[in-house]
Amino acid sequence: MKWEDNVRKTVPYVAGEQPNKAGMIKLNTNECPYPPAPEVGKLLREIDPSALRLYPDPNATLLTDALAEYYRVDPGQVFVGVGSDDVLAMAFLTFFQGGRPILFPDITYSFYDVWAKLYRIPYKTCALDGSWHICPEDYEQPNGGVIFPNPNAPTGILEDLETVERIVRANRDVVVIVDEAYIDFGGKSALPLLKKYDNLLIVQTFSKSRAMAGMRIGFAIGSKKLIGYLNDVKFSFNSYTMNLPAQVLGVAAVRDDAYFKETVGKIVATRERVKESLRELGFSFPDSRANFIFASHKEYSAEQLFRALREDEIYVRYWNKPRISNSLRITVGTDEQMDRLIASLKEYQDKRRRCPE
Amino acid sequence: MKWEDNVRKTVPYVAGEQPNKAGMIKLNTNECPYPPAPEVGKLLREIDPSALRLYPDPNATLLTDALAEYYRVDPGQVFVGVGSDDVLAMAFLTFFQGGRPILFPDITYSFYDVWAKLYRIPYKTCALDGSWHICPEDYEQPNGGVIFPNPNAPTGILEDLETVERIVRANRDVVVIVDEAYIDFGGKSALPLLKKYDNLLIVQTFSKSRAMAGMRIGFAIGSKKLIGYLNDVKFSFNSYTMNLPAQVLGVAAVRDDAYFKETVGKIVATRERVKESLRELGFSFPDSRANFIFASHKEYSAEQLFRALREDEIYVRYWNKPRISNSLRITVGTDEQMDRLIASLKEYQDKRRRCPE
Are residues B173 and A2 in contact, defined by beta-carbon separation less than 8 angstroms? Predict the structure, then answer.
């Protein structure tokens, strides 16, 4: 036998590329186009380097307390991790252990099946309907757990709280995870449902609306019981996941609510404006409530538009996958960035009209 | 059925307490008593807060390159994670999948059995000999993988490279992990063995000798094949584990080799001096090559000494566990801190001699 026979082989998730060119426009990984709250930069400069010699607080108490205060829950209802991917991976490992297949939409965040495979959790996907909505009745079959993003990715479609509650209510014997990475851009969080359902876990992130993808902070809110189980697994994996700067700067980001709301407001305004411009250019798309638009064009393939934009150093996300291969996921950037995107698309259209292929 | 029936239940690792009192002496989690390299503090102030809005480099290229250069290996041989606990947990999940029990010493880092239980990996412990050394012949039985720290924890005992090589050579059909968290304090790393063995994984950390426990940086070096498998699992778990400050400051720490050697030299000198003082006080201990001493007293129990030191606000580590419950693990701090420790122990001894219980 060779040592390689003992190795867990996986097909890893492939993240959006991270190009780093001067002048490029990066609209491919749903980052926030605005910097983090001013207090974040200020506290970054105030960190005492000699404090780095000590282990950080394993419970990230200041950060969980700040989140608990902000979301008006008990600190024991909050769990933090190294980005929401860390939180979600821990939740898969903790909660989806029933042996029966877990359920999630067929078109969704592409990490779900990767985690299921990594942890050998059986899964079954439920097809979105013709208008890209979740069909709640699909989640009323026997299962080992449920997860879906709201708004969904990469469609940007928001389900109303009634639909979310219907799914949670129908699945009291398993854990239901609502992945709210994009909820701040116009959705209604499932947080109020926590009062009624102790099997609901809500996951959010600092990477989008709080402009801190580079700090890796995600969090989950659920019943104290649920969070307790999650912490047991986390403390069986790595006691100290959140480094000192993440804890300090995370608190700063939560505290500046005015800046947060201003930033989110600007992104939402830009998104609505861009929807108009894209429609005029012949694009159609689900009505996104996230910080991206999932657009397809009536004449040009997503792949050719993706390549054309790339030549103009504008990066958007394209997947060569069934059902979604004719759409581009375009992150909402600043007004200036989106003007350049629209101009580039218009130019491509003009060129193609002058000389069709 | 209740949702709790689907939950993975674990008994988590309990880390050393993290008290935070003015004037206390913290010798309980093997942190470095000196601050990180000056360049770390400088670069911390130079991080552009607006860069935090972007995802960090998922490959932590600058950091893996700096480590590859320092240890004279190919960058493809280096893996980085959120502290060596993250690296080790990923390695357990990746490499210990053969179904047969993995082997590690009975007295060792107390996270190994926690990871094994978390990932449902069968394991078997091999007893250290009477002088706390590893018996290499114990690792010549059929197994699904091997892991041991060198120097071992909490004993501080170093095995020579011949013993390490004997174990690696006898286990070519599985992965052998040498956990070198404390190697910089006087041990010989197994790095040269990498030329001969592609089944050897060496794990180190920035938390001890590089004074950056608060940044959470650990790393592994092995054959490109081994590191490739580890990366596949890591990218199936969380694409972006290392936040921007960790990547930037990690590079700064690696580059300042003079400071690193000076710091380590001071700790080693203090350790040797403290060994003398402890011996004079009636302590005995294995000859530590780490940044801690695992000491037991001929008259007083570890538990009573632990409590007495605590009253003087001196924190050391004590485990109420078979075979090790009569020893204290004392981290080597600064000379001043160790003088206070010795004085406190002497005072306790004097008091007890005057009025025996």
Answer: yes
CA distance A163 to A298: 31
Instruction: List pLDDT tens digits, range B79-117.
Output: 999 999 999 999 999 999 888 999 999 999 999 999 999
Candidates A236, A260, A266: best to mutate against B (most CBs of B within 10 A) is A236
Chain B residue numbers touching A51 (CB-CB < 8 A): 214
- Report which of A270, A122, A3 is spatially closest to residue B94, judged by C-alpha positions: A3
Residue A96 contacts B where some CB pair is shorter than 8 Å:
yes
Does position B357 have pLDDT exceeding 80, yes or no?
Answer: no
For residue A212, which residues of chain B lie inside 8 Å, CB to CB? 52-53
Nearest-angstrom CA–CA distance, B204 and B217: 9
ipTM for the whole predicted complex goes beyond 0.85: yes
Whether residue A49 and residue B40 make contact (CB cut-off 8 A), yes or no, is yes
Q: In angstroms, what separates the C-alpha of A106 from chain B's closest C-alpha? A: 19
Of B6, B54, B212, the CB nearest to A52: B212
Answer whether residue B255 shows pLDDT above 90: yes
Backbone angles phi, psi at B355, to 5 degrees: -130, 90
DSSP state of B105: E
Q: Which helix (H) or strand (E) holds B278?
A: helix B257-280
In chain B, residues with a C-beta closer than 8 Å to the C-beta of A213 are 52-56, 240
pLDDT digits (tens, 9 = 90+) for A296-315: 999 999 999 999 999 999 99
Q: Grade residue A64 by pLDDT with cuts at 50, 70 and 90.
A: very high
Residues 227-246 of B with CB under 8 A from A: 229, 231-246
Cα–Cα distance measured from residue B79 to residue B63, given in angstroms and rounded to the nearest whole number: 10
Residues facing residue A331 across a β-bridge: A292
- The reply to whether A256 touches chain B by the CB within 8 Å rule is no
**Structural domains of chain A ordered from first start:** 14-34+258-354 (3.90.1150.10), 54-255 (3.40.640.10)
Give the number of beta-carbon pairs within 8 Å between A and B. Answer: 277
pLDDT of res. A357: 66
- By the 8 A CB rule, do B29 and B18 touch? yes
How much is the mean pLDDT over chain A?
Answer: 96
Looking at CA atoms only, how far is residue A82 from chain B in angstroms?
6
Q: Which ranges of chain A does DSSP label H, i.e. alpha helix?
A: 38-46, 61-71, 83-95, 112-118, 161-169, 224-235, 244-255, 257-280, 302-311, 335-354
